[in-house]
Structure formats: structure tokens, C-alpha cells
Amino acid sequence: MKILVVDDEKLIREVICEYASNEGYSVIEAENGDDAINKVTENPNIDLIIMDIMMPKLDGYSACKEIFKIKKYPTIMLSARKEEYDKLLGFDLGIDDYVTKPFSPKELMARIKAVLNRSKKGFDDEDIYKYKTLEVNKRAHTVKVDSKEVKLTPKEYELLLYFISNKGIASSREQLLASIWGYDFFGDDRTVDTHIKMLRNSLGKYRDLIVTVRSMGYKFETDEK
């Protein structure tokens, strides 16, 4: 597994690199957003990006926007900024997790493993999930039913990816809020229920793949063996 660590503080990069290397990851470093874009271009087989927000030349948000045009890489945002707005902006861009500084390197390693597990499970080597005539292409960022593209909102799309990556596993509304909207999202269970309803309507004949788990939450379930 190859990780790109983007931060203008050399000491932080060194700490992350040391812990990541001990976990068996191959690490590439970048000191700003422009450098990160170049590194992604040179190394398209990166598995995960750790991206700082406040950097010279090009900030983390802008760098992610440009990088995600190339490919939607699993991404953890790293920042000293703890405001809800900053976190929501990151999740709206499509990042997978948000870690505030100062942080525990061990916790960061655990978050890296969790994000990688979610991003790989359920998809084949080409980042495509197929069930009958339902097709989800992570690389192209598209969802099709009967060969016709289905338009999903960003949150609907994130929910669908999360369900596919955790196929057969029941997730509570709290887990979904934390994973999709962020750990400090100011909202309640109705937010999840509303978006589940929207996603089911968008999926049409595959709406029943999203199963309600009584007194808990939801799961994605098919008849695949």
C-alpha cells in the first residue's frame, strides 16, 4: 500500500512517515498542494492521501479538488482547524476522514486502516461494483441502472459507496452520521433517514438492497454468495 503525505511541516511528515513505514506502508512526501498534484501525476497507483489544509502555494482543499479530477483517492484531511465549517467543507469535497492537530500517530494509523478497508471492500480491481444491472464505478464517479446513469447527490453517492464497502454489515445511524457527515456534524438521525429515503428513490428497482435494521440502522444486502 502506498500513501502520499502532504504537509508543509517537515516534522509532521517525518512522524507520519515513521509510523506508516512501521505499519508496512510505502510513503511519498509532498510539502504543498502543488507538489501533491505532481506526486499524484507521477504515482497514479497511490492508495491513500493524507492532506493538510493550510499550506503555501496551494491549500489542501484546492489540491483535493484538482486531484479528485484525476481520480477519487481515499483521503484523510489533517488540520489544526477544528471549526465545523472546515470539516463539512472537506466532507463535501469527498474526503473520507478529518483529523485535527495535535493528533495521536497511532490513532491516525487506525484511521488509515479503516479508510483503506472501506475503500477496497466490495469493489474489484477496476473500482467497479456490479450487481445484476446496477453498476457503481468509483473511478468514473457514476452509478447506472439498466445502463442508464442515475444522478445522485454527493451525500447519496457517499452513502452508497459506504454501504457497498460494508456489504452485509449493519450500521447504526450514529455510525453513518460519523462516517458520511463527520464526527462533529450538528444534526440528528432524521438527516440519515432523509438521505436514505432519497437514495432508495434514486436506485429505483434496487431500493430494497438498502435494508432497514430495526432499532439500529441500515445495511446493504444482496443475494450474492
Task: Pick out its properties.
alpha/beta; five-stranded parallel sheet; single chain; 43% helix; 225 residues; four-stranded antiparallel sheet; 12 strands
Furnish the topology, listing elements before pairings.
Blueprint: E1 2-6, H1 10-22, E2 26-30, H2 33-42, E3 48-52, H3 60-70, E4 75-79, H4 84-93, E5 97-100, H5 105-120, E6 128-131, E7 134-137, E8 142-145, E9 148-149, H6 154-165, E10 171-172, H7 173-181, H8 189-203, E11 210-213, E12 217-220
Parallel strand pairs: 1-2, 1-3, 3-4, 4-5
Antiparallel strand pairs: 6-7, 7-8, 8-9, 10-12, 11-12
- Which percent bin holds the helix content? 40-55%
- Mean model confidence by pLDDT: 87
What structural category do the secondary elements indicate?
A: alpha/beta
The arrangement of helices and strands along the chain is: EHEHEHEHEHEEEEHEHHEE
Uncertain runs are: none
| Estimated share of beta-strand residues | 15-25%
Note down, in words, how this protein is organized.
The chain has 225 residues and is of the alpha/beta class. Helix content is 43%, strand content 21%. It has a five-stranded parallel beta sheet with strand order 2-1-3-4-5, sandwiched between helices. Strands 6-7-8-9 form a four-stranded antiparallel beta sheet, with helices on one face. α1 (10-22) links the parallel β1 (2-6) and β2. α7 (173-181) crosses α8 (189-203). The longest helix has 16 residues, at 105-120. It is globular and about 50 Å long. It starts with a strand and ends in a 5-residue tail after the last strand. The mean pLDDT is 87.
